[in-house]
Amino acid sequence: MNIFLILLSLALWGVVHSILASHFAKDMVQGFIGSGGMRLYRLGYNAFSVISFAPILYLVATLEDRPLYQIPAPWSFAMLGGQALSVLLLLVAVLQTDTLSFIGLKQLFEEEKPGQLVTRGLYNLVRHPLYLFSLTFLWLSPAMTVNTLVFYIGVTAYFIIGAYFEERKLLRDFGEAYEEYKHRTPFLIPFLIIDGG
Q1: Beta strands of the chain (E only): which ranges?
Q2: For 62-102, how does the pLDDT look when each residue is reduced to its tens digit (9 = 90+)?
Q3: pTM, whole model, 2 decimals?
């Protein structure tokens, strides 16, 4: 039952999160609140995403659980080092985007402009560095329980499915430029290109 609850909560969160990120949802909200009110959309979307994700973490932490493994030292130290590196690279990837716009703060002070396709830095090595380094952080955890394993599998599935829909949106937004970028840059595994990812 715990596995079902964790996966169901992740699936519901993922569906809502993806719908709210779509052009359809943004256009619908803009019809209600006008273009001026849309300045709050990105910030509100991010705040809602974080707040609505908290109950999932609560379930993972509080539902009945059992340990699967605990990696002993010194290997656990190597894994913790890998997690620290993942956090650093995740931060670098965020900073290589328009960070204030990504968070939603820039839109509070100026009209939102169409996004730019980022293909430099870590985005030149892999199309989804935010997903990649989030996943390496999770999977390098030196301790694993049933609940965390189910959570990690669910998050991994969401990232892969979410990346598919995100790429469809990016193709609509950037057209040929994204198509070319897609065919020369790996999906989630650096240096591995299989038919354009």
Answers
A1: 67-70, 143-145
A2: 999 999 999 999 999 999 999 999 999 999 999 998 888 88
A3: 0.87
